[in-house]
Amino acid sequence: MSNSHYNNYNQQQQHSGGNHSGSNGDGNYQHQQMVHHPQRLLNGHGMKSVAVPDMCLFCFEVLDCELNNMDGPGVPIFSNDAYPLFVTWKIGRDKRLRGCIGTFSAMELHHGLREYALTSAFKDSRFAPISRDEFPRLTVSVSILQNFEEAQGHLDWQLGVHGIRIEFLTERGCKRTATYLPQVATEQGWDQLQTIDSLLRKGGYRAAITQDMRKSIKLTRYRSQEIQMHYKEYKEHQERRSGQFGKVQC
Fold first, then answer.
1. How far apart are CA 139 and CA 89, in angstroms?
2. What mean pLDDT comes out for the span 31-43?
3. Is the pLDDT of residue 69 over 50?
4. From CA 175, how far away is CA 169, in angstroms rounded?
5. Comparing 69 with 44, which gets the higher pLDDT?
6. φ, ψ for residue 199, nearest 5 deg
7. What is the b/e burial string over 151-167, where b = at least 16 CB atoms within 10 angstroms of the residue's CB?
8. SS3 content of the chain, % helix, strand, coil (to 5)
9. How far apart are CA 175 and CA 191, in angstroms?
10. Region 207-217: what's the mean pLDDT?
C-alpha cells in the first residue's frame, strides 16, 4: 500500500469525532470498515450464528420511517439477546462511508439496532446527517461482536480474523481508546504494525510512534459477524410484502 493511501485513511480518522465518545470511556465508537457482498456473513469463526438479513431490513425500516416522519417499525422477529454491535451506512456504487457508530456495551438487539441505525445515520460527527434523497443509494451493514479476549501484546491478533480495541495514554497522559473491526486492515492492505499505528492516530496520539509506545498499548481482540444489504434488496422486500397484503382469498 502506498504512503499516500495510508496517510489519506488516517486523515479521515483524525477528526474530532474520529472515535466518537469512546475517548471518554463510555463505550461508543466510530470507525470505517470494508463492504462485502450483500447478506454475506463474515468473521463468524467458531461463534454462535446471530447476524441475519432481517437485522438489515429492520435498520432500513427504522431509517425510512424517521426520514418520512412515520411511526417506527414494530417488534422485529430476530433474536433479542444482548450483544455489542455496530451499524454502518455506506452510499453509492463505490460504497463510501456515510456513517458508522456502535457500542461495546451489550445491548438487546431490538433496541440496540433501532438506536444505532439512527445514531450512525444522523450523529456521526464526520458527516452531515443522511438525507431522504440519499436513502435509495444506501447500503447498511450490521456487525455483531463476540469472543472478546485480552491480548498478550500489541501483535497478539490475526489480520482478517480479529477486530482490535486499544487503550493507551497520549503524550499528555490522557487515556484514549480506539477500535477497528476485523475487515479494516485487510481492506486497506495494512500489516499489523500499520494497523496499530493508524489506530493510534485515529485515537488522537500525535507524537512519534515508537516501539516502546506500541508495547505499552492494552489491546483487546474480538470477532465479528457482519451482515449487509443494499437499498434495492430492502425495496424488493417491501414490494413483496405489499403484494402479499394486497391479495384477498375467498
1. 6
2. 37
3. yes
4. 5
5. 69
6. -70, -35
7. beebeebeeeebbbbbb
8. 35, 25, 40
9. 25
10. 97
Average pLDDT over residues 115-133: 97
Alpha-carbon Rg for the chain in angstroms? 19
Q: What is the 3-state secondary structure (H, E, C) of 126-153?
A: CCCCCCHHHHHHEEEEEEEEEEEEECCC
Task: Give me the residue label for grid cell 485480552.
Answer: 150
How high is the mean pLDDT of the chain?
Answer: 83
pTM for this one? 0.77
> How high is the pLDDT of residue 220?
98
Q: Which residues contact 153 (CB under 8 A, 6 or more apart)?
A: 215, 219
Runs of H (alpha helix) within the chain: 3-13, 53-67, 109-122, 183-188, 192-202, 211-215, 231-246
